[in-house]
Write a structure and sequence with these properties.
Blueprint: H1 3-6, H2 8-20, H3 28-50, H4 61-79, H5 89-115, H6 142-158, H7 164-190
Helix pairs in contact: 2-3, 2-4, 3-4, 3-5, 5-6, 6-7
């Protein structure tokens, strides 16, 4: 397990503490998003351990610290962003259904990306190939789009008003948009034909 993998463990423990230590009067509309985000982070942790094939690129110190701050702030912001009205069975069911679709889609995209980067062997360097098929037929970064959609979906469930979680959702939106554009430019430089019929995040639009 690499240091980047191990750093996820405190966040998982913190999420568990925030979820199970929530007072009995905590609204179900807060507990459900908290549980959903716990499962989201757990899936990301699983992918770090068993799915991703990491390159030799380095993460900037600013990005590293921002990641720590984000995941430590996430459960706090969720607990502080209780919906203004109760969420019924129908709205909760729709919310969970959308989340399951997004989680499944993002996980499949991550597996597809990992399958294109063979594990480096001694004396050789893994060669990256652009992904094709499924959502990658229309955009270069569907996994980023689904990350944005996940946090927007959680925000919709919490309510259409400015709450502490809004700042995190905005951060994800800006961060993933910038990352997607950077990836799109990289694909254009290294695989010029690949970007001719694809956009970065939203098919045919952006």
């Amino acid at each position: 397990m690499s240091p980047s993998d191990r750093k996820c463990i405190p966040y998982l423990l913190f999420f568990n503490l925030a979820f199970f230590a929530a007072p009995p009067e905590t609204a179900l509309g807060t507990l459900i998003p908290l549980l959903v985000c716990l499962l989201h982070v757990t899936r990301r942790f699983y992918e770090c351990l068993f799915v991703h094939v990491f390159s030799d690129s380095k993460m900037s110190v600013v990005h590293y610290l921002a990641g720590h701050f984000f995941y430590l702030s996430l459960p706090v912001c969720l607990v502080s962003s209780e919906p203004s009205t109760d969420r019924g069975f129908a709205s909760s069911s729709v919310f969970l259904s959308v989340v399951i679709l997004l989680e499944t889609g993002q996980h499949l995209a991550m597996k597809q990306l990992a399958s294109l980067r063979p594990v480096e062997s001694k004396g050789t360097k893994a060669r990256y190939l652009p992904p094709t098929g499924s959502a990658f037929s229309y955009v270069t970064c569907p996994h980023f789009a689904m990350e944005i959609a996940f946090y927007i979906t959680v925000h919709f469930y919490l309510g259409l008003r400015f709450v502490p979680f809004s700042a995190l959702a905005m951060f994800v939106l800006v961060n993933q948009f910038c990352a997607a554009r950077k990836n799109y430019q990289w694909y254009g430089e290294h695989f010029s034909a690949y970007t001719k019929h694809r956009t970065s995040l939203i098919p045919f639009i952006l």
